Fold this protein.
Amino acid sequence: MTTSTPSLHLASGTSTLAKTTSPVVIAGPCSAESEEQMLLTAQGLKELQGVTVFRAGIWKPRTRPGSFQGVGSVGLEWLRTVKQETGLRTACEVANTSQVAEALKQEVDILIIGAHTTVNSFMVQEIADSLKGANVPVLVKNPVSPELMLWLGALERFSYNGITDLGVIHRGFSTIDNAPYRNHPKWDHVLELKKMLPDLPLYCDASHIAGRRSLLRPVCQRALDLGYDGLMVESHYNPAMALSDAQQQLMPKELDMLLQSLKLNHTDEALTQKGVLMEELRKEIEHLDDELLDLMARRSVVSAQIGDLKQETNLDTQQAWDDVLENLLKQANSFGINKEFVKTVFQEVRKQYAQTHLYADMGA
Ligand code: PEP
Ligand code: MN
């Protein structure tokens, strides 16, 4: 059974994933596409301050068949060339044991467990078992859904197999409403993990949270303000030509501008976990209020149609309305909402409509 107090064996002091004086930046294309694309991008990135790791997706988990699935094994050769030519450490996602074996054979420096793999404990276990005794850093992305224990469980599976050079990548979560993000950051959720495991290197994959270039800066800054150890940002020498995630990739020189604009090593003390939670809850309330307003507007359209029909047919809807109200009050009870309050709200909504549309028989 998983205990609530995690005990990971972390490579204390020797972690190759923790920040030293400034945050570590992992950058590179969403997908490896050609040797030329990899080299042109990496040559640009190696000049940037903070960029020490080059990432590229070799096998791409895609929602539907038919979209670009990654170049496969040949991409590992290009990653090797990037390492030789630029001196950057390399990283790629692995999603099964044969990909692990190939990546290790081609001396990829850091393995990444993608969000779609972290959700699958069978796959994580197989990958972790296959790494027993291997001396390779592993970065585990959060599972697609906000399930902290699943994320922690994946880390434990690696830790129990002797992988101590571990870190996590926060890439956002799939929630009911991710707007304006591609994947909702749910910072507060991640801070829970940080609280449990303060020594675990924590990276922010701003690209997969933002989903578009314009949101990258605030996401990166927020991560740094919260004391993250590093950032992951997708970069392509020509994003317009990218075969995957074109809308969120930056040219190396754009990434340079972004990094220069960030306040590095700046932790915002005011952003405590409670502060972040308050901000997230306030945003949620704002959003719910918007929805309420939207529902009221939609309700008034339907209500107007009913009003028109009533005038045409002389049908009396009073009984129907009384039944509706009675049902609403029963539901209010089961939701634990004060019945009188609900009654007043609905009577007011109806009255408001009646006043606006001057239907004599409506209203309180
Ligand atoms: C990626 O990093 O390109 C990727 C597919 O990410 P994720 O696993 O976060 O979806
Ligand atoms: Mn991507």
